[in-house]
């Protein structure tokens, strides 16, 4: 597919004063750059220099704040990736976007015109891959392919769209030396055809070898340009960081001591269909030694890290030894307490939670190993915020972590700076054993040098360090011993000085199988995650939802032939004009607040209890045992015991879906919802059968509770009872727990990333039990408060749907206990408003449900639109020609 030639004096692509602002921060500040036809142009810079922001603007993922982009001399607006592809710009991202369960051809088809048959795509992909020296079998499943073969898919997918400019982001970071050489041959062929390549890499030897020109960014500005063939890696690094990059001192001078980490015939079955089994892995790491494990991604590195860290313990205690003590069956917290530290591969969602601050992410890894320093308050587990922040500041200074504020969110840092903090977080403990997976993945030369030197220094101080890495330069720089992992098997370890890059590259290779093809992807509507979420609109979202609900409600009343203003007045204002109605508002708000506060703990921990209505009913039943069955017992203990029984009843009923999810992996949404009907039928049977009041003239209800079983009123001038006080107290206690305690931190972490929670040593299974039973207990307390305060007996129906409405309350209150108090009052108003509207203007009380449903719909819709953009993906048939129809990154 030759590319038409361009005038020699006209760049293929040029940018002038291109700027991108995030608030007041300029990620790219007045960048000028041009790329000529038929050249390989390097884009260099430290992490955070603005490279990613720049290429995202060139590929339509981000919109510039200022400046212009010229394509073949003409100004263009690149509004989306599909617009970039139509111009002739293709991009291969560092992190692949492939579906492992699909074939090569099916993955390529995802970004092509659905009107073209899969057979045509397969033929074209096979021919093109062969012509560029990137052989692929279109029928092979991605799960069976090496990382190098997966990258070929990405490149072939880009080439099928006949681009004139290809952007490659860290293309060799996952390749063996042999695969990298093959990629360079492909790039030379693209250059010979007149295509241009924008090449992003931290491997400066590669840049020097293959690139014609280089542009250097620092702090969002262009600070230099050069012919890299006339430079050295050291001079290129100097241009990137503004000073000489420190050379890592040799690791080979370390004196070795006793074995501190050992694996003995460690085997572990694959946990998922696409994971790799560990097969008879044995290794030893001595004090003062750096053992580096090389390998192509996807050959068991992650599984080995999980087994060594204890995130996934094995049954054989002797399979892993930490400081010569059996640890194979121990979790990550126990291994940390034995003196081990761990740095996983994935920064976001595993080593750190992006939305949490750096100090919170310090607690993530050290809440147990440094409990005395960071956690106080005895059983309450209150986080010592100042001590944590001092430690985070110390780590940042030691590792030269560059950040925008005193304690910013982890997600606001560049990859290199976050990695320095994560590594420093472990080094700050001076662990006896450190296991680190991909320590400098995607990290610039300066940050990589600092991290590698820190690992070497730790070993020199007498610790045992195990480094899992795909970067052979890194391995030779830090290792005293080197082993290679391939398909879950580990080779013997060899002294680093005795191995060559070529020998390691051969050991890293492997065989992969084939599979058949089937399936298609139709045209679709997609949600594209916004790169920046507006804090202002996040705060305003509940108010916007409420306004939209009122507007739609007014339209609904007009369609019913009612005056909208009169109807809304009856619904939202009239119930607030009498003192007695304010008491009714508090009575109806109490169960909503109490239940929603419990549900907020569930939802923030990613456990979806939908059955609070059933737990409310079972709490009411359990709390009614004493006044109904033991009605002749008159004691001050009756009411306190009723409240305790009610909480136990709700908690135990919520324990059923908790058990099914924690131990049988059953969906808690379905089980908790189905149990609502069980509770309703059980209540109906009781009040019509064994608990029916013998003196109640055959009505389906129990005895009226005695005075000792009735909740007292909060004030003498109204009906508001202590149930409302329970709701406010519960909201305050849960707010305090979420804000200040380790348990609240655990809830937040597991809710945002179960994997990060596992890395912290938190148990998702225990959290299922805790959150479900806490929410059940609160629902049960609401139930017994309702029947002992407002109703004072059991009837077939004791709730107008409080358990379901509380779901709306929880989300309207942003899952914040204090916000839930306000939301509970708003939703309670809809109950009173429905009754008032029925009397005033003659509409059905069912209008209450309509308003509640509209409110939930608009709350969730506003949240969705705040976090995502909607893209409609249109397909246009175009014969055998390729036409891009997706708006996502791939």
Overview of this structure, please?
It contains 31 helices and 25 strands. The radius of gyration is 32 Å and the shape is globular. The chain starts with 12 loop residues before the first strand and ends in a 17-residue tail after the last strand. By secondary structure, it is an alpha/beta fold.
Write a concise keyword list for the protein shown above:
single chain, 890 residues, alpha/beta, seven-stranded mixed beta sheet, six-stranded mixed beta sheet, 25 strands, 46% helix, globular, disordered C terminus
Q: How many E-type strands?
A: 25
What is the overall shape? Answer: globular
Q: What's the tally of helices?
A: 31
Cα(first) to Cα(last) distance is 21 Å
Q: Structural class, please?
A: alpha/beta
Share in helix:
40-55%
Radius of gyration, in Å, reads 32 Å
The fraction of residues assigned to DSSP E strands is: 5-15%
The overall pLDDT average reads: 86
Low-confidence stretches: 1-6, 510-523, 874-890
- What oligomeric state is this? single chain
Largest sheet: 7 strands, mixed
């Amino acid at each position: 597919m030759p590319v038409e030639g361009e005038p020699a004096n006209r760049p293929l692509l040029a940018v002038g004063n291109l700027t991108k602002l995030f608030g007041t921060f300029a990620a790219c500040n007045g960048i000028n750059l041009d790329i000529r036809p038929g050249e390989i142009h390097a884009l260099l810079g430290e992490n955070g220099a603005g490279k990613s922001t720049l290429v995202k603007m060139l590929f339509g993922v981000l919109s510039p704040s200022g400046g212009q982009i010229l394509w073949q001399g003409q100004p263009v607006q690149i509004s989306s990736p599909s617009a970039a592809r139509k111009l002739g710009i293709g991009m291969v991202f560092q992190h692949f976007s492939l579906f492992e369960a699909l074939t090569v051809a099916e993955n390529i088809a995802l970004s092509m015109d659905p009107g073209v048959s899969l057979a045509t795509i397969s033929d074209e992909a096979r021919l093109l891959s062969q012509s560029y020296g990137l052989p692929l079998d279109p029928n092979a499943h991605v799960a069976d392919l090496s990382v190098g073969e997966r990258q070929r898919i990405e490149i072939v997918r880009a080439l099928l769209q006949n681009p004139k400019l290809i952007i490659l982001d860290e293309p060799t970071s996952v390749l063996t030396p042999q695969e990298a050489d093959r990629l360079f041959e492909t790039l030379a062929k693209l250059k010979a055809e007149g295509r241009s390549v924008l090449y992003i890499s931290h491997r400066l030897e590669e840049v020097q070898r293959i690139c014609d020109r280089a542009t250097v960014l620092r702090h969002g500005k262009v600070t230099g340009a050069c012919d890299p063939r006339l430079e050295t890696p050291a001079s290129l690094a100097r241009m990137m960081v503004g000073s000489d990059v420190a050379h890592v001192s040799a690791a080979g001078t370390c004196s070795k001591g006793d074995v501190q980490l050992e694996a003995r015939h460690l085997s572990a079955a694959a946990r998922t269909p696409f994971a790799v089994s560990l097969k008879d892995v044995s290794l030893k790491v001595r004090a003062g030694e750096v053992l580096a494990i090389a390998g192509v991604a996807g050959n068991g590195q992650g599984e080995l890290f999980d087994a060594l860290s204890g995130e996934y313990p094995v049954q054989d205690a002797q399979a892993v030894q930490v400081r010569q003590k059996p640890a194979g069956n121990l979790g990550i917290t126990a291994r940390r307490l034995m003196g081990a530290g761990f740095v996983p591969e994935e920064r976001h969602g595993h080593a750190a939670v992006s939305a949490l601050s750096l100090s919170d992410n310090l607690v993530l890894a050290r809440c147990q190993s440094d409990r005395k320093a960071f956690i106080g308050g005895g059983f309450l587990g209150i986080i010592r915020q100042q001590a944590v922040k001092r430690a985070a500041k110390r780590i940042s200074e030691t590792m030269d972590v560059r950040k925008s504020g005193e304690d910013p969110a982890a997600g606001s840092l560049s990859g290199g700076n976050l990695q320095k903090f994560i590594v420093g977080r472990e080094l700050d403990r001076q662990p006896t054993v450190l296991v680190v997976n991909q320590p400098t993945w995607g990290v610039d030369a300066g940050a990589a040098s600092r991290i590698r030197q820190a690992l070497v220094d730790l070993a020199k101080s007498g610790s045992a360090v195990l480094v899992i890495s795909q970067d052979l330069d890194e391995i030779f720089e830090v290792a005293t011993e080197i082993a290679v992992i391939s398909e879950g098997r580990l080779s013997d370890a060899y002294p680093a000085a005795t191995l060559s890059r070529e020998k390691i590259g051969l050991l890293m290779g492997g065989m992969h199988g084939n599979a058949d093809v089937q399936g298609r992807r139709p045209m679709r509507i997609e949600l594209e995650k916004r790169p920046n979420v507006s804090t202002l609109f996040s705060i305003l979202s509940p108010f916007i939802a409420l306004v939209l609900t009122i507007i739609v409600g007014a339209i609904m009343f007009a369609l019913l032939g009612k005056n909208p203003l009169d109807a809304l007045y009856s619904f939202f204002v009239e119930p607030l004009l009498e003192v007695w109605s304010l008491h009714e508002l508090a009575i109806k708000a109490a169960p909503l607040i109490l239940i929603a506060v419990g549900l907020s703990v569930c939802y923030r921990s990613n456990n979806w209890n939908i059955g609070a209505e059933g737990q409310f009913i079972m709490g009411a039943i359990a709390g009614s045992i004493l006044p109904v069955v033991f009605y002749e017992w008159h004691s001050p203990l009756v009411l306190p015991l009723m409240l305790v029984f009610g909480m136990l009843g709700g908690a135990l009923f919520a324990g059923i879906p908790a058990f099914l999810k924690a131990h049988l992996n059953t969906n808690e949404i379905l089980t908790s919802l189905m149990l609502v009907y069980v509770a309703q039928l059980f209540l109906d049977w009781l009040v019509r059968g064994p608990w029916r009041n013998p003196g109640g003239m055959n009505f389906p209800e129990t005895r009226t509770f005695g005075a000792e079983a009735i909740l007292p009123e909060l004030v003498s001038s109204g009906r508001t009872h202590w149930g409302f006080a329970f709701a406010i107290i519960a909201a305050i206690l849960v707010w305090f727990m979420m804000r200040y305690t380790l348990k609240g931190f655990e809830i937040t972490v597991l809710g945002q990333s179960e994997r990060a929670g596992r890395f912290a040593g938190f148990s998702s299974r225990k959290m299922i039990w805790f959150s479900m039973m806490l929410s059940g207990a609160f629902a049960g307390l609401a139930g017994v408060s309702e029947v002992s305060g407002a109703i004072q007996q059991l009837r077939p129906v004791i709730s107008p749907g409080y358990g379901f409405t509380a779901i709306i309350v929880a989300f309207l209150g942003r899952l914040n206990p204090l916000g839930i108090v306000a939301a509970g009052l708003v939703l309670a108003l809809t109950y009173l408003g429905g009754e008032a509207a029925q009397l005033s203007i003659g509409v059905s009380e069912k209008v209450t449900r309509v308003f509640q449903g509209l409110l939930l719909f608009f709350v969730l819709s506003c949240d969705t639109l705040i976090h995502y953009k909607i893209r409609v993906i249109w397909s246009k048939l175009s014969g055998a020609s390729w036409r891009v129809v997706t708006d996502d990154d791939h």
